[in-house]
Amino acid sequence: MNEMQKKIREMTLVLLYLTSWEEKEFDMKFRRSWKGYDFDILNELSDEGLISDSRRSKSIILRESGVEQAEALLVKHGITMK
């Protein structure tokens, strides 16, 4: 993976996080986001265990590790949520 591909992957994870919303089901909370991004990148994020992706759904679930990595990337890139 070259440097540009790495940045695109990072920014995709950040955008998934920034556009996500919280849902609650069976006393469990999770973050969901629409999957309107490059499917190859979404597949990579899924393979890394950062998101859960259903082929039938139009949205993904951000796993805890994905949320943690996205929040770390916000800090890394100086992005604040206000």
Quick structural overview:
Helix content is 46%, strand content 23%. It has 82 residues and is α+β, with helices and mostly antiparallel strands.
Would you kindly provide a written description of the structure presented here, covering whatever features stand out?
The protein is an alpha+beta fold and 82 residues long. The protein is 46% helix and 23% strand. It has helices spanning 3-18, 39-47, 64-76, and strands at residues 21-25, 28-34, 51-53, 59-62. The chain has a four-stranded antiparallel β-sheet with strand order 1-2-4-3. Helix 1 packs across helix 3 (64-76). The longest helix has 16 residues, at 3-18.
Shape: globular
**Helix-strand category:** alpha+beta
Task: Give the helix tally.
Answer: 3
Q: Can you say what the CATH homologous superfamily is?
A: Winged helix-like DNA-binding domain superfamily/Winged helix DNA-binding domain
Counting structural domains, the number is 1
Please tell me the overall pLDDT: 91
Low-confidence stretches: none
What is the highest CATH level, the class? Answer: Mainly Alpha
Order of helices and strands: HEEHEEH
- Helix share of residues? 40-55%
User: Which architecture name does CATH use?
Assistant: Orthogonal Bundle
CATH topology type: Arc Repressor Mutant, subunit A
**Total strand segments:** 4
| Gyration radius, rounded | 12 Å
Q: How far apart are the first and last residues' alpha carbons, in Å?
A: 32 Å
Report the biggest beta sheet as strand number plus sense, adding barrel if it closes. Answer: 4 strands, antiparallel
